[in-house]
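Example record

The entry below shows one chain as it appears in the dataset: sequence first, then structure tokens.
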Amino acid sequence: MPGNVSKYVSFSISLLVHSIIFFLFYIAAHNYNPSTNGLIEFNLFEESGGGTTAVAEELEEKINTSEKKVEEKVKPVVKSTETKKETAAVGNQSGDAKGTGTGSGTGTGTGTGKPGISLGIPIIQKPKEEIYFVAVDEMPEPLGGFDEINSKVIIPPQAKQKGISGTVFVLAFIDEYGVVRKTMLTKGIGYGCDEAAMTAVSRTRFRPGKQSDQPVKVQMQIPVSIW
């Protein structure tokens, strides 16, 4: 009995396999197309309505999805490459540039002018020399008299210690307003007395000298007593 069952099972399997093979050959013969150069096309998913089955659509969707993923992986690489190029371009623009060049051109114009040469050196004008008269109709006089000048003299301590005394002659330059502009030593006695005499004259206001009733600049020698 077990042997009969085994034979029955083997026969059934053999029948099933031959049926499948026969079915495949049938489909191949049915779908044979001479324009495909002898190639046999198996289309197990074709329906009577001529549309694609759910399995074919799923396969197509998976293929499209895989293509999109590949494109998404490729795009960042392209962007990064473009970004590097842009960065390199910006970096090159920020650098120094050197170059040489030549050119030519023509033009016309009219105008008038005076010829001249400029060396870029500033012209220094000499100050106008002030003229001080030596002798005039009315010589300057110190306000308060010459004793006023002597009263303004401060005798240096060293001159006092050594008992220095005498007369210092100072040349004073007095302008038309009676102001002493500068002084010069004509004759001195030393020990600081000369500087004291010139300081006293500079601090004195004068009645200006006159020439033809007009105030003028006058230089005059003034004796200063040191006691």
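Notes for this example: Residues 78 and 84 are 10 Å apart (CA to CA). The first helix runs from residue 2 to 30.
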